[in-house]
């Protein structure tokens, strides 16, 4: 009898076979040698069954049939890959032992567990657990195979994750879909992620920009010129700001304070998958899924990097020798110059910014292997380059600077100067352009940062005891900026910390096991939100569609806000992590999920049905969503049930709902007509309307939203025969839409 080795994908299976059975016979769907038969899954060969597998009545979506709570979950083969499942079953009959060689992670464990369950494989199982697919790692891995019992808790966590997603996805999606007669996809992870995007977009839309003035002055002392920023309360009066600039211009001043300190900047952490995805999005605009696919190809096909689906930024003591060997390998590649300048002595077991075993769970940080990167596509090379440069940077010393802080006083006014003087690039030689990021970046926020801190490479020195002259001063008009829309990179960061905006790296690390999803699943979650028509991309920016907005609002109004809570769902992910470590019971977790599913049904049952107009796409959405609409599936990673999406229309006058009608108890939505913004419930008697022109001013969509949210517009200038005047437009009647002017005295 032989030993059956089951890999997760064909390439992995063939790579393993080349090491343990180099003369194996190729039988297309498996390889057979003297001791081993090596075959493979093709991703997920099995999945959780649809509801109609439990009862035929579930083929039709009816609210009255909910909740659906299987006592025991059924699994079914993927029809596209059932032949491969049959092959595994056949060759298993000739084997008396099995090696689980699927990906060393939660999903890989689950793929094998379902195969074992479906085929009733009773042979003893060993586990291959390796982080890269080099011949050395495979050979070493087979020399030290683990007993499968060591991974039972990981299997329990994987099953709990899949079944929890099914329970929430199936029940919540069917409940909201049948209640509102529009296909609405709801999920345990995807819904709170959508809520993050929705909330950020609402913040941006409701943001009221404030004009203010910043005063910059140019000083000179014995030939040395420098710029200072006025220190004081924010100035919103342009005349006062100009007067202050005039006051100091051309006047003598003195240095009231001058502080110089040496600072060091150490290399950025080694990559985990989420960090790699974030940086690839920022630098190349790659989606999270694209970066994952490219990294997976570098791992599986080219075997030039270690296992990419890791959540760790550190390595263990066992990896240090391999890192030194990889550095040596790079000396014979296009990275020779950087590798030659590196200092191997800087990477050692006591360097806690690199080697920290307590921070390594299943897999260490992404590292290069000993195989040279060759025949890579342009996009694969981009990802490989990121990994290599980050890796080499840890063999370089910190970048060194002198931080100069100067307070200059002129005519009683204080100006602050921050100068960062570069002494030594150190590791930043591996990241060209890093120090120039601020000056090359676009956008007001980056410009403001640049003005606050000047980076110089030549020596900077000021004599505190000598006077200075203010050569010039200028008051610049500025405007406060709204929060930035999410990109895939910044969204991944928010998912990693369950939506908490944590700047502190240590706190973010502590939240990793309570994030939304896992490094391996976050890309798929973002793609799903695109596919179901909840979000769309505008360049790098993610925006919520009308359908996505309505979905979140309906869920929250139904009283199941927990379903949209990133922090709550992050705690669920933490519990799954605890299950994988044997620190929590999967049965209790699943009981809580079932109770939550029941509560969702109970809450949705009493919710009023939403107007169909709430789901209609705006004109700008229709062109991108038309091809997707017919392909939407119900929520839940395993759902394949077909349903008809809401009808789209291109009839004139059927436009995007702009905001809920403010008339109490109405429930309609405001839409734009030819002459005004009226309510969709006008046929039911709602008379709310705001006309597009009032007192000579055109009411725009943004002004409409400000009126509804704040009850008044910003200060506006109106024309009058007796002289222009300033006033705000006030919404005085939230039943009819009546407006008035509120004049402001000069």
TrEMBL record:
Its EC number is 5.6.2.1. It catalyses: ATP-independent breakage of single-stranded DNA, followed by passage and rejoining. The keyword DNA-binding applies. It comes from Paenibacillus segetis. Keywords: DNA-binding, Isomerase, Magnesium, Metal-binding, Topoisomerase. Pfam families: Topoisom_bac, Toprim, Toprim_Crpt. Belongs to the type IA topoisomerase family. This is DNA topoisomerase. SMART domains: TOP1Ac, TOP1Bc, TOPRIM. CDD domains: TOP1Ac, TOPRIM_TopoIA_TopoIII. Coiled coil: none annotated. Residues 434-457, 615-656 are annotated as: Disordered. Residues 151-601 form the Topo IA-type catalytic domain. The keyword DNA-binding applies. Residues 2-134 form the Toprim domain. It comes from the Bacteria.
